[in-house]
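Please decode residue identities from the backbone states below.
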């Protein structure tokens, strides 16, 4: 009766060799597989050692998040037509993504009713499918000139904004 009782409570591991094999397959091999997968995933964009690009790769990894773009603050302001041709015509010339077409008085009328400042704010901060235009190649006054040019060709009568220094001199 004791033989039957002992067989019922024993597991599949009967000797130390089987225990060692079970430990290796259960713990050691998965740990090495995980380490290998982590090394494979994290090595994707690193250049090979000795390839000559170590300094450039290091510089790319530790570069600053922001950048400073120095521009000539005394350059003459661009006209509204120049801003329209360079920045706005891609969508407003064709009416892409719901943009009011250049010169379409019916499409511009409800926008003109909101006022010049609202139109400039929409242009600088973005609205709907139109991305923000502020901080790009043109300063805020030039973007406002582009808005005035488009709105005036759509039936408005907004004056073209002047340079800030010119306003202070008056």
């Amino acid at each position: 009766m004791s033989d039957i009782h002992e067989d019922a409570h024993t597991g599949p591991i009967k000797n130390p060799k089987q225990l060692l094999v079970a430990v290796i397959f259960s713990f050691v091999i998965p740990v090495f597989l995980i380490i290998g997968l982590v090394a494979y995933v994290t090595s994707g964009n690193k250049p090979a050692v000795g390839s000559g690009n170590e300094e450039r790769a290091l510089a790319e990894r530790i570069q600053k998040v922001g950048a400073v773009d120095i521009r000539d603050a005394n350059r003459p302001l661009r006209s509204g037509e120049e801003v329209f041709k360079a920045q706005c015509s891609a969508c407003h010339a064709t009416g892409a993504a719901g943009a009011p077409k250049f010169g379409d008085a019916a499409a511009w009328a409800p926008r003109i009713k909101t006022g010049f400042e609202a139109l400039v704010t929409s242009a600088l901060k973005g609205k709907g499918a139109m991305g923000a235009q502020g901080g790009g190649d043109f300063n805020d006054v030039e973007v406002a000139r582009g808005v005035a040019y488009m709105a005036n060709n759509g039936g408005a009568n907004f004056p073209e904004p002047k340079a800030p220094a010119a306003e202070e001199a008056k």
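Observation: Residues 2-61 form one domain.
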